Description:
Layout: E1 2-7, H1 10-19, E2 23-28, E3 34-39, E4 42-44, E5 47-52, H2 57-64, E6 67-80, E7 89-105, H3 108-120, H4 131-135, E8 138-143, E9 146-154
Antiparallel strand pairs: 1-9, 2-3, 2-6, 4-5, 5-8, 6-7, 7-8, 7-9
The structure holds flavin-adenine dinucleotide.
Amino acid sequence: MRKTTFLTQLSDIEIIIKKCQTCHVAMVDLLGKPYLLPFNFGYANGVVYLHSDFKGKKIDILKKNPSVCINFTTDHELFRQHDKVACSYGMAYRSVLVYGDVEFIEGFDEKVDALNIFMKQYVDRDFTYSKPSVDNVCVYKVVIKDFQGKIYHHETLE
Ligand SMILES: Cc1cc2nc3c(=O)[nH]c(=O)nc-3n(C[C@H](O)[C@H](O)[C@H](O)COP(=O)(O)OP(=O)(O)OC[C@H]3O[C@@H](n4cnc5c(N)ncnc54)[C@H](O)[C@@H]3O)c2cc1C
């Protein structure tokens, strides 16, 4: 039996976000077309942190239209009921969508705080940062305004 569970608590979606290595950030480009990019990220207290170069298509877009939808997925697992029946195969997953607006972070101390949160997603240690390295990276955040979480699995995986 395939089961879908929808998550309504921030604490539940945080568990999924914390397990992810990457996210996909969807935006609407200057011509009204979709543009989606994979990113590394940090997360803390309802805020997603991103970083990049100061230039590029995404920055041009986000400066004009900061509205984004970000997807996080983890625990992908192929399941099947019958080896020879294609339609009995499925992919279990845990997935989160969050919505918000990109806000560029300008101050040195706030950038360092964001970079520390970012690094904590990947490495369990503290870092120090030189002023040039902080000045040379564009750091931005998305305060989560809305979210949806979904777990899809098969009872044989429980
Ligand atoms: C796992 C992963 C993690 C990443 N993490 C980060 C991150 O934390 N920060 C970051 O800045 N970038 C990250 N990247 C790269 C990111 O996805 C973009 O490629 C990069 O940021 C450049 O985007 P841009 O809009 O500035 O494109 P531009 O440099 O302006 O590129 C021009 C053109 O290249 C094409 N293009 C751009 N990116 C991609 C892409 N990913 N795949 C295919 N075509 C593309 C587009 O058509 C675009 O019009 C990551 C990529 C991967 C796969």
